[in-house]
Amino acid sequence: MVGIFITFEGGDGSGKSTQAGLLEQWLTDAGHTVVRTREPGGTAVGDELREIVLHSRGHIDPRAEALIFAASRAQHVAEKVRPALQRGEIVIMDRYLDSSVAYQGFARGLGADDVRSISLWATEDLLPDLTVLLDVDEDTGRDRLHDARTRYDRLEAEERDFHARVRAAYLEIAATEPSRFLVLDASLPVDDLAAAVRTRAAALFA
Ligand code: TYD
Which CATH class for the 4-203 domain? Predict the structure, then answer.
């Protein structure tokens, strides 16, 4: 595979989308072909699954929830991500398998190893070259979301403890794979974060 695969992770309200957008702009300006996408979603099937998993009114069993995220991911990788990487493009993604490990594996209590295995099976073992973790404490994330939202999705609506578990999970995941992760304090100014992301991304091209 000749392309480069970069993912952004973090709790709700961590500023992932802003940073993904700034990196996309910087790489595009430098002449690279960039595919920017997100999970859940990214394909027509994925968008339908996104609607179910985030906005379905009825109860979704945690295992069913984990499999819906994995199904969206399988479709996304097969239809969009792997072909782009094979063309030598850069893929920037808002959330990927570490979201499942943090939210479903740790915060929902399904088990990190099982949830990771399901995603690796779904994607035929596609791991990012770089994952930027924007570490945000649950209260700051909440406040930012509150300013930006009129309604919360099913995961965002979970209680404070759930989001505290998500944060701790992310830090634990990052610690087990330090060479893949860049961990940044999401409370830093946007420009400082963007500069740190660019420095690390540039190293991938060296
Ligand atoms: P997202 O659209 O990234 O929301 P936001 O941009 O507001 O952070 O993700 C929606 C929710 O889905 C988010 O609360 C995290 C959750 N999620 C999981 O629980 N597991 C997953 O595998 C993914 C991709 C997302």
Answer: alpha beta
